[in-house]
Amino acid sequence: MSTLSLKKGQPVALTSTLNMSLITQSDLPDIIDMLGNPAVNEYLFFAPAPVEIYEGFFGPIIENTESAIAAGEWPEQLTVVIRNTKGTYMGMAGLPSVMFLEGNFEVGYQLAEHAWGQGIATQAAQYLTALAFNELSAHKVTADCYASNVGSYKTLEKCGFKREGCQNDYYKVGNGFVDRLHYGMTKADFIAKN
């Protein structure tokens, strides 16, 4: 797993056909376009939203990432962009630390619709989970998803995450509500799996 190049802001190979790099300002139009797709934002509580909301959210993450690269450190809200070897935007993934809980991180991913069903979310989640435990001294990595987002929870289960709980009727979807599923993996789980 090549993490030093990623930490320096350079792209790394996620697979033979996909590269991953830390988020930059030039990625923002592709991210905003993806989040505006109704098929993508069906399972995102924060989308759709006005462009200014996305700029306000991602702006500080991008600034922190630029500062971290310059200092030779990992960003506080580690966010990566995934592109194929031709440069086509495929999606993004994140590994933010959990505020006030040292050693705890959350993994998340959003893919452009044309990137669905190719195992990209699984590859990205596996990479970031390994990075959390091997580079960031993580004790635990968690994730959550809509119970109706079968692809997302199957991705987490393929990566070795265990379902830890459910919040009933949590997310508003259409005229009803859907449950929120919680997943987690401890360092001991990660070591046993690998």
From TrEMBL:
Limits of the N-acetyltransferase domain: 18-184
Top EC class of this enzyme: transferase
InterPro entries linked: Acyl_CoA_acyltransferase, GNAT_dom, N-acetyltransferase
Matching SUPFAM superfamilies: Acyl-CoA N-acyltransferases (Nat)
The UniProt record lists the keyword Lyase: no
UniProt KW keywords: Acyltransferase, Transferase
EC number: 2.-.-.-
Molecular function (Gene Ontology), one example: acyltransferase activity, transferring groups other than amino-acyl groups
PANTHER family xrefs: [RIBOSOMAL PROTEIN US5]-ALANINE N-ACETYLTRANSFERASE, GNAT FAMILY, PUTATIVE (AFU_ORTHOLOGUE AFUA_3G00765)-RELATED-RELATED
Assigned protein family: Belongs to the acetyltransferase family. RimJ subfamily.
Protein name: GNAT family protein
